[in-house]
């Protein structure tokens, strides 16, 4: 049984697994709190096929700072490294 990390972490098991893999606390929390994380299917559009606004919205959702000044290519890079 995993440790309860309080209400700020929605999926404690996933959070702990990600931390064991070496992810930062912030990144592990962001993934563990995403209701879509862990779902498989590979049906997401390629970033290159999305509009800049869609990429901006996704960057906002995952908490990427400086996104308002980023180009489409910069948003794609930031999302891939988030």
Question: How are the secondary structure elements laid out?
Answer:
Elements: H1 12-20, H2 25-33, H3 52-62, H4 72-81
Helix pairs in contact: 1-2, 3-4
Q: What would you say this structure looks like, in words?
A:
The protein has 82 residues and is an all-alpha fold. The chain has 2 domains: 1-38, no CATH class; 46-82, no CATH class. It is 48% helix and 0% strand. The protein contains 4 helices and no strands. The longest helix is centred in the last third of the chain and has 11 residues, at 52-62. The mean pLDDT is 83.
Radius of gyration: 14 Å
Mean pLDDT across residues: 83
Percentage of residues in DSSP E strands: under 5%
Report the principal-axis shape: elongated
Quick summary of this structure?
The protein is an all-alpha fold. The chain has helices at residues 12-20, 25-33, 52-62, 72-81.
Feature tags:
82 residues; 48% helix; mainly alpha
